[in-house]
Structure prediction request, 271 residues.
Amino acid sequence: MKPIKVLTIAGSDSGGGAGIQADLKTFQELEVFGMSAITAITAQNTLGVQGVYPLSLEAVANQIDSIGTDIGADAVKTGMLFNSEMIQLVCDKIQQYQWDNVVVDPVMIAKGGASLLQEEAVKTMREKLIPLSKVITPNIPEAEALTGKTIQSMEDRQEAAKLLHQLGAQNVVIKGGHDLNSDQVVDLLFDGTEFTTYKSKRIHTNNTHGTGCTFAAAVASQVAKGKTIIDAVGIAQRFVHMSIVNSMQIGSGHGPLNHAAHRTVGVNHNV
Ligand SMILES: Nc1ncnc2c1ncn2[C@@H]1O[C@H](COP(=O)(O)OP(=O)(O)O)[C@@H](O)[C@H]1O
Ligand SMILES: Cc1ncc(COP(=O)(O)O)c(N)n1
Prediction:
């Protein structure tokens, strides 16, 4: 069988819970071949981010070229891109290699509050990267920053999703982890025509470090396999849910997910 290959362009999390590490664990568990281009190294653990060390544009370009000129990718996922120049470079490479299965997780701020994207880069994200995306997966604060609108209700979220679609994203998922008003977590998909909501029980836990990265990596792996976006988002939500429910106690702050949970608990990720 032809191997399915997925590239993540993102930051490294030394604590192993988010970023490149979460992406590669997710790819492996969802049975696609994972590859990475690292944009920045973070010194990070469950308590927060202790340091951010961006790589040079040359180092990032070279990593992407190594993959583009030899291995290729059935889908590309972007995470922490740090600044405007890095976003522009990633856009150029996506166009150069004609990658069209692009899942953009517009990472801005780590759960502990540390900035992972310079503020002026939001404009580049909006104008350059979003138009190249098959799916964009902001959380609520990221959707607010990208649209300039406050999101309180589901109607607000639908309006924001429409605006992000107008900016050129083919599909928009506004994730609901940050909507603490409800006992449910509701992720909202807009495909340009219809809204689809995905509901799961909110788990009351501190172990949510890396949920966004894991979610977008799971969507990318399913898109690479040729699943519809509607199915891909459902599979991703269930995979994240399972990985939070069965998280391990690692570190003394916001702990990581257990990406291998589905092996013992059983989740049909091919539905
Ligand atoms: N406490 C929770 N219980 C269950 N699912 C959650 C919880 N927090 C987040 N999720 C799920 O994790 C994914 C990422 O959501 P979110 O927290 O909004 O993004 P981010 O990690 O980018 O801030 C979504 O699919 C969401 O449904
Ligand atoms: C290198 C890196 N990239 C992304 C995140 C966001 O993580 P989350 O998935 O919890 O929003 C992070 N904390 N570190």
About this structure: DSSP finds nine helices and nine strands in the chain. The pocket of MP5 (ligand 2) is lined by residues 10-11, 13, 18-19, 42, 44, 79-80, 107, 110-111, 116, 209-213 (CB under 6 Å). Strands lie at 5-13, 33-45, 48-54, 75-78, 102-104, 135-136, 171-174, 184-190, 195-201.
